[in-house]
Write a structure and sequence with these properties.
Blueprint: H1 9-60, H2 67-73, E1 80-84, H3 97-109, E2 117-123, H4 132-141, E3 147-154, E4 160-165, H5 175-211, H6 227-273, H7 279-303, E5 312-315, H8 316-329, E6 334-337, E7 344-347, H9 349-367, E8 370-376, E9 380-386, H10 421-431, E10 435-440, E11 446-453
Parallel strand pairs: 6-8
Antiparallel strand pairs: 1-4, 2-3, 3-4, 5-7, 8-9, 9-11, 10-11
């Protein structure tokens, strides 16, 4: 069974307010309606008693010979009257308080010569057969007790006058439902406005946290909103500043190490170049070149040059097509399939080129060739780079993104590289809000898929 659970603060606040205030409103309406029912019932019975007393007085003042004609005219006056020789019903031995009150009202309004007045109240609806829903509805609307008032008046000259007054047609207050609906609507509108105003800084904080990986140098967020929200924003600003300081310290440390290492490497190169040409000399010079490349790659990885590069909107398809053409010109086995242009994307151009180049270089060096394919989807751009190499064990997919990690089983150091290419590519792609994933191809080889969100 599917259960709906509100998760947003706005929905939860509205539900709590609606349930609490609606329950309070319903309770007050029931209490108010109870008093209203009693008052309306009493008022309706008093009006019926007045009509009955007036009609009976008129009959008593009419000559006996003309009373039958007069009683017949009452039929159209929301009152029925009948002349009988015997009492139409027996006197009540244990009448209710309301019945006795109506009898006293009628007797007080009749001439003194009337010796006997009998009253019987008959409910319009059979309460025993009514459902609980009807009782609840009547209580909510303040529906008065609708009763026929039967009165029997003893005539001084003999006989009885029976009068029946029907209950009033109106009485229920149907405005209660409209007032409650208006209250609920007002609560919803005010609650939405208040909660949105209170949670707007939280949304800004959440968006800044999602962008932190690619905008670590962004300015501090303004500390607005309730005290708790301001405290959370202040903690986030402090955390981002600390992360920025740690990154800067790492960059400075590696830059210093790189600078300190370049001097002895240069001295070694000069001394080795003074040796007579030979295989050992070439190997030592190659080792020094590898060390220089590793130092340069490590420094580039630490600097995260892409972090400070401004965004620009470019044609991603044209960029990739040009990169592939340049690689083909230098003899690399690279092919491109996809649109030739018209794919606009907001990015840091040099950083994105570096990420794509790293992935393509890996495919060429370790897989012999690189088949580059760009697919444009509704909400994303997918760049797939496939090679024809041996692939990778699935348990190595996450490890190859770790800095300096090399999968010796499939990729030998003889091919070169420092183990930072995919690490740098992953960081740059993540800084653009994208993802990078590996998968083995069924026909052999490895496929690297870069997914980038469409530029708005």
């Amino acid at each position: 069974m599917i259960r709906w659970r509100p998760t947003s603060l706005i929905a939860q606040t509205i539900i709590v307010l609606m349930v609490g205030l609606t329950a309070s409103h319903l309770l007050s309406m029931v209490v108010y309606s109870g008093d209203r029912i009693a008052a309306l019932t009493r008022q309706g019975n008093r009006a019926a008693a007045q009509r009955i007393a007036d009609a009976a007085t008129l009959v008593l003042r009419t000559p006996v010979a003309e009373r039958g004609e007069l009683v017949g005219r009452f039929a159209g006056l929301s009152l029925s009257a009948t002349l009988t020789d015997a009492p139409p019903f027996a006197a009540a031995t244990s009448a209710s308080a309301e019945t006795e009150a109506v009898r006293r009202d009628i007797a007080a309004l009749l001439p003194p010569e009337v010796a006997d007045v009998r009253v019987r109240l008959v409910a319009l609806h059979d309460h025993a057969g009514m459902s609980a829903l009807h009782h609840l509805r009547d209580a909510f609307y303040g529906e008065p007790e609708r009763m026929f008032v039967h009165a029997a008046v003893a005539l001084p000259d003999g006989g009885w006058l029976q009068l029946v007054a029907p209950p009033p047609v109106d009485g229920a207050d149907h405005s209660a439902l409209a007032s409650m609906a208006a209250m609920v609507a007002a609560i919803v509108i005010v609650a939405i406005w208040v909660v949105r105003r209170m949670t707007a800084p939280l949304k800004t904080l959440a968006e800044a946290a999602r962008r932190m990986a690619r905008e670590v140098n962004a300015p501090d967020l303004p500390e607005t909103g309730p005290a708790e929200v301001r405290e959370a924003i202040a903690a986030f600003n402090a955390m981002r500043n600390e992360v920025r300081r740690l990154l800067d310290d790492r960059t400075l440390m590696l830059a210093a190490i790189s600078h300190d290492l370049r001097t002895p490497i240069t001295l070694l190169r000069l001394r080795i170049e003074a040796f007579a040409p030979g295989e050992d000399r070439d190997r030592m010079l190659g080792s020094l070149a590898d060390m220089e490349r590793m130092i340069a790659a490590t420094l580039g990885f630490a600097r995260q040059d892409a972090a400070d590069e401004p965004h620009a909107v470019l044609d991603l398809a044209a960029l990739i097509d040009a990169m592939v053409a340049d690689m083909q010109d230098v003899g690399l086995n690279v092919a491109y399939a996809g649109p030739q242009g018209g794919v606009r994307f907001a990015c840091r151009p040099q950083a994105l080129k570096r990420a794509i180049a790293n992935v393509v270089d890996n495919a060429v060096h370790y897989g012999g060739r690189a088949d580059v394919e760009l697919r444009v989807e509704a909400d994303a751009l997918r760049l797939r780079v496939a090679d024809a190499g041996p692939g990778l064990p699935p348990d190595q997919f996450d490890k190859v993104f770790q800095p300096f990690y090399r999968c010796e089983a499939s990729r030998s150091r003889a091919t070169g590289g420092s183990g930072l290419g995919l690490s740098i590519a992953r960081d740059i792609v993540a800084a653009h809000g994208g993802t990078i994933a590996l998968a083995n191809r069924t026909q052999g080889g490895l496929a690297v898929t870069i997914t980038l969100p469409r530029a708005e």
